[in-house]
Each structure stands twice: as C-alpha cells, then as structure tokens.
Design a protein that fits this description.
Elements (H helix, E strand, L loop, with lengths): L1 H42 L6 H23 L3 H18 L4 H21 L20
Helix pairs in contact: 1-2, 2-3, 3-4
Length: 138
C-alpha cells in the first residue's frame, strides 16, 4: 500500500511539472503579447485608457509568473503572493466602487496578516526537503 501511495504522490508531482510547462509556454506567449502591447501603448500613449490596457497585460503576466512559482513550489508565501496580485490587478485595472476598494484593501491586509502568522510553511504533507510524509511500515 505504501508503494502505491508513494507512486501516486510522485506521479502527481510529474503532473504538476507538466502543467507548469504549459503555464510557462502561456507566459512566454503572453510576454510576446506584452511587447506588442507596449508598441501599441507607445503609439497611442496620449489616448485615454492606453496605459490601463498595457498595465492589464503586464499584471496578467506577473500573475502567470507567480502562479507558476506556486505550482512548482507550493507554500503559504507563493499562494498568498498570487492572491495579493490578483486582488491588486482587480483594484488597479477594473473600475470599482468605494466598497469594492475597501474590501480589496481589507483582503490584502488579511492576507498579509496570514503571511506573517504562517510564514513560509510547506503545504499538505510535505517536509522542507519535499519528501512525502507517509507512515513507514515496520
């Protein structure tokens, strides 16, 4: 039974790496789009909303990079970083009401308190050296 559990655990890590590769390809494609968007932004820089369009593309790229880090090295810090960037993107890019802005600020504050309390702890059954925690047969 232990061998089956360990095998499934290792297989899940392989799947995470494969998904990470897909995310990496998407990040590279989006990086090319950001470079094209910069050219559009530069030529239309005096147009209302040009900067916001460019900023939205950049924040999407940053969220993708943080998501990749979270996928490959899951811990409380990387998960909270992704959530903070998603909330920040929502606040900066979208048109929001005062109540939504307040809730976003409170959410970021709560996430920062969680980060301070839990720190850089591994997630779900892993030790610092990434070995699965499985009871050893005696």
């Amino acid at each position: 039974m232990k061998k089956l559990v360990d095998g499934l655990y290792r297989f899940s890590h392989v799947l995470e790496v494969i998904m990470g590769l897909f995310v990496l390809v998407a990040i590279i494609i989006n990086g090319i789009t950001v470079m094209q968007e910069f050219g559009t932004f530069w030529s239309d820089r005096m147009t209302e909303g040009a900067f916001m369009g460019f900023l939205e593309q950049v924040l999407n790229l940053v969220i993708g990079v943080e998501f990749l880090k979270m996928l490959l090295r899951p811990n409380t810090d990387t998960i909270l970083e992704v959530l903070v960037f998603v909330i920040a993107r929502h606040m900066v890019v979208k048109t929001t009401t005062s109540l939504e802005d307040l809730l976003s600020v409170v959410s970021v504050g709560v996430l920062l308190m969680i980060r301070k309390h839990f720190g850089n702890q591994p997630i779900t059954g892993e030790t610092e050296d990434k070995e699965p925690i499985v009871e050893k047969e005696q």
